[in-house]
Amino acid sequence: MQLPPSGSTSVLPPTQSVSVVLVVADSGNVPISDIWASAAVVPAIGTGSGAKAGPTAVEHATAVRIGRLAPGASVVVTLPSLKVRTGRQYTLWAAIGTGKLPDGPVTQQPAGAGQLDEVRIKVASG
After folding, report:
1. 9-123: which CATH architecture?
2. What is the pLDDT of residues 41-74, one digit of tens each?
3. What angle do CA 66, 3, 99 make, to 5 degrees?
4. Would you state the pLDDT for residue 7?
5. Residues 121 and 10 sit within 8 Å (Cβ to Cβ)
């Protein structure tokens, strides 16, 4: 799945897990060290387009260390699968950053170099 337009919800076929694949690139002219990638799914509160993520109701989160990227280099990272339930809506958070590997879900912009993307998903009923 690619990032959908802001404010939309992506509907997935019935499944019990979601895989997140990130392309991480160093578009600058200096190496970047201590890079990590993270993803989390948070059950949505409410229904329809107004559904929002609950602040502490993390369903599943994962993070991996990527390491160092040279200037102009990129890497494709497949994170471990995240468990989901059919018929439920979630907010999927995907982040990259530098420094210490996160202990839990990343749901705010990482400090320093990094990026955070938020995607609303709904897993269809089976």
Report:
1. Sandwich (2.60)
2. 999 875 444 445 444 455 689 999 999 999 999 9
3. 25
4. 79
5. yes
Q: Which pTM value belongs to this model?
A: 0.81
For residues 114 and 35, what is the distance between their CA atoms, to the nearest angstrom? 9
Structure tokens that stand for 71 in this block: 């200037």
Question: Could you state, in order of their start, the residue ranges of all structural domains in the chain?
Answer: 9-123
The rounded Cα 19 to chain-centroid distance in angstroms is 9
Query: Buried (b) or exposed (e) across 34-48, using 16+ Cβ within 10 A?
Result: ebbbbbbbbbbeeee
11/120 Cα distance (integer angstroms):
9
| Pair 79, 60: CB distance under 8 Å | no
Q: pLDDT tens, 89-118?
A: 999 999 999 999 998 888 888 887 789 999
- Helices in the chain by DSSP H: which ranges? none
- Identity at 16, one-letter amino acid code: Q
Rounded to 5, what percent of the chain is helix, strand, coil?
Answer: 0, 50, 45
Q: In this structure, which amino acid lies at residue 63?
A: A
